[in-house]
Amino acid sequence: MSFYTTIKTEITNKKYVLSALEEMKRRGEITNFQLQGRKEKIEVDRSGDIINIAKEKTVNFEVGGDARVVRSFSDRLKQFYAYEAIKDNLPLDFEIAKESETAGEIVILLKG
Fold it and tell me: What is the average per-residue pLDDT within 41-61?
């Protein structure tokens, strides 16, 4: 028996959430995701596990789903959210020289 868990996050920008999900899909960490019409809700398929990402009244996103997978998914989503935000907000005099990932940590080497 499994329980439905909701994790409140400080994620606010929908653009970076969608970019993070695209990156996770590209890396094979999720199967698919679907934006639910006009609602601020995204349904994510992670190899059969359905996870919901919804905007709450405080304009932050919350992640909900099966307690067994939602914690690790939420942590990984936050990593990719930060990664996409960093890439998008790099000053013009910096560029990414090297990207790597080891043991679940994304390492970015900047060249300026």
Answer: 90
